[in-house]
Design brief:
Elements lengths: L11 H11 L3 H21 L6 H12 L5 H7 L5 H17 L3 H18 L1 H11 L2 H13 L1 H6 L6 H21 L2 H17 L4 H14 L9 H26 L8 H10 L20 E2 L6 H19 L5 H10 L1 H5 L2 H24 L1 E2 L5 H26 L6 H31 L8 H11 L7 E4 L3 H5 L19 E7 L4 H16 L3 E6 L10 E7 L13
Parallel strand pairs: 3-4
Antiparallel strand pairs: 1-2, 4-6, 5-6
């Protein structure tokens, strides 16, 4: 880091500036981060066309807590309950003010994610400070928020934002525990790992990473603890994690309710709509994965493709430009990093999480950029270290030939810090055009179709939607389990929404469905864009009488 030990040898013109930089307190760094990040979160909240498809399922999950017991709800969904509970808690004041509507529940989901994203600044700052210094904590936290991939996911209605927050907090407690060997921090790390597990099953990786690092420390003589103390540290780490995690295991009777990865791939290819609620229609499930190779059956080929996808997605997540300082840190600062206990725990988590993703790619044949969020978060720290090293190179080039070794060393450090911050600013600015794009802006037609339906639906009408957005924004998802009876003299309608695509495999299935609907006297009542003819529209909506044998409904008493 080449920091000067005394300011007395600095030129008078730079002494105060250097002192101001060094004495910045943590709350000042964090306040600056909040001032920079909150406007981005607010911008993305305002500029959201639709939320992610998975958000509909999380909202459905959250509302079930008001209808069934905790155990019944957990057993009926394959996701862990952490994020749905956060949505439910966030929705309480909003619904008390504006009622339970699709827009209110969307805001609840996105606000829960955005709040977690802002809170993430705290553990990320202190992780960087524990690994290197405050500059690394500040730069890594800022960069992760503004990178296009993570920036969008942190504002979407997804569990990733809360999950990354809990992973970062648990890792921070684990690193403080490894650095201080205080039992309190081991217990806090275990509890944080349990909370991360309640959000996503991968949260258990934090416990494994810190536990393996603690075990590895017993091999190194200078870091070794007496065995009685080491056993106490392990107990403080494991017991709280088991206690917190048992809240899910005891309710469901298993470690996770998620189906096997292979079954997920088969389900995605053969089911229709949310949770397979409409088995009588052919599969229209859209591909959500960033890299999909489900057609490859060889496990070895899938493993190779998964490794390639992992590297590609990391490069994409770092906006490609971030790979340069990351490589600089790995090659030029690897010895300093290897000597730090914080780096051991972070590297352990990255390795274990990457191994889990490769196993997923091998068994399921897909890899999503969302799965890489914790890895990208941790890679932002060496990326910022690389930016500092590049700043030092720039400063050394600028101060070449300066007389006085002491002055040159201190001026170089001071100039390097500002040069690094300038490089960080340039990288953030380069990310802004993509990060500031409207969330899911290409799904405007799905939302427009839902709003069109909301004005025309009658009690007893049914909406079948291949993407679930139209059904959600029409308000029908909020009626699940509470469908009002239709009037005795009314023939309910069934609206089938189809989002056309150029994907040859999906297009074939949807073309077959359209032919079946036309053969069943289905009529196109809406298409989007309205300026194009229905034959060229991206979204079409068919209307036909609701079939009482396939989809029976309640009838109001006369």
């Amino acid at each position: 880091m080449d920091e000067p030990r005394s300011e007395s040898i600095l030129p008078v013109s730079q002494r105060r500036l250097w002192r101001d930089w060094r004495v910045w307190r943590d709350w000042q760094w964090l306040l600056l981060l909040v001032c920079l990040v909150v406007p981005l979160r607010a911008w993305l909240l305002y500029n959201t066309e639709v939320m992610a498809r998975d958000s509909v399922g999380y909202i459905r999950y959250a509302l079930r807590f008001e209808e069934k017991s905790y155990g019944e709800v957990l057993r009926s969904f394959d996701q862990h309950p952490g994020y749905p509970i956060a949505i439910w808690l966030t929705s309480l004041p909003l619904r008390a003010w504006a009622g339970t509507t699709p827009d209110v529940m969307q805001w609840s989901a996105q606000l829960a994610s955005s709040l977690a994203a802002v809170l993430l600044l705290v553990p990320m700052f202190y992780l960087g400070k524990a690994l290197w210094d405050a500059r690394v904590g500040f730069g890594a936290a800022l960069l992760f928020q503004f990178l296009p991939m993570s920036g969008h996911h942190l504002s979407d209605g997804m569990s990733e934002s809360l999950f990354v927050l809990l992973v970062a907090a648990a890792l921070l407690c684990g690193i403080w525990a490894l650095q201080t060997r205080r039992l309190f921090w081991f217990a806090a790390c275990g509890a944080g790992s349990g909370l991360a597990y309640l959000t996503r099953p991968e949260g258990a990786v934090v416990l494994a990473a810190v536990g393996l690092t603690l075990a590895a420390f017993q091999i190194r003589v200078s870091w070794r603890e007496p065995w009685t103390r080491w056993i106490a540290e392990c107990a403080c780490l494991i017991v709280p994690a088991l206690l917190v995690g048992s809240l899910y295991v005891m309710a469901t009777g298993c470690l996770t309710n998620k189906p096997s990865i292979q079954r997920m791939a088969e389900f995605a290819a053969a089911s229709f709509g949310p949770a397979g609620n409409h088995p009588h229609l052919p599969g229209l499930w859209a591909q959500l994965w960033a890299d999909s190779f489900v057609d490859i059956t060889s496990p070895l080929a899938r493993l190779v493709l998964g490794a390639r996808a992992l590297i590609t997605e990391v490069g994409y997540a770092l906006h490609y430009l971030g790979c340069i300082p990351l490589a600089v840190a790995v090659f030029w600062k690897r010895r300093a990093l290897c000597a730090d206990r914080a780096a051991w725990a972070m590297a352990g988590y990255v390795g274990l999480h990457a191994a889990a993703l490769l196993m997923l790619a091998r068994s399921a044949g897909y890899l999503s950029d969302r799965h890489l969020m914790p890895i990208v978060m941790l890679l932002c720290f060496p990326t910022m270290i690389g930016i500092l090293e590049l700043g030092r190179w720039i400063a050394a080039w600028q101060t070449r030939g300066t007389t006085g070794p002491g002055v040159q060393r201190n001026e170089s450090w001071h100039s390097a810090s500002w040069a690094a911050m300038a490089l960080l600013a340039l990288l953030v600015i380069a990310c802004l055009p993509k990060t500031g794009q409207r969330l899911h802006g290409n799904r405007a037609g799905n939302r427009a179709a839902g709003l069109w339906l909301a004005e025309r639906l009658h009690d007893g009408d049914l909406v079948l939607d291949d993407h679930d957005w139209t059904r959600y924004y029409s308000g029908q998802m909020l009626l699940e389990g509470k469908e009002p009876p239709a009037a005795a003299d009314y023939q309910p309608k069934c609206y089938v929404v189809i989002t056309r695509t150029n994907d040859p495999k999906v297009k074939k299935i949807r073309d077959q469905l359209e032919r079946r609907l036309k053969w069943s006297q289905g009529e196109i009542v809406y298409h989007w864009p309205a300026a194009k003819p229905a034959a060229e529209a991206r979204i079409v909506m068919y209307s036909l009488p609701r079939d009482p044998r396939t989809y029976p409904w309640k009838v109001a008493a006369k």
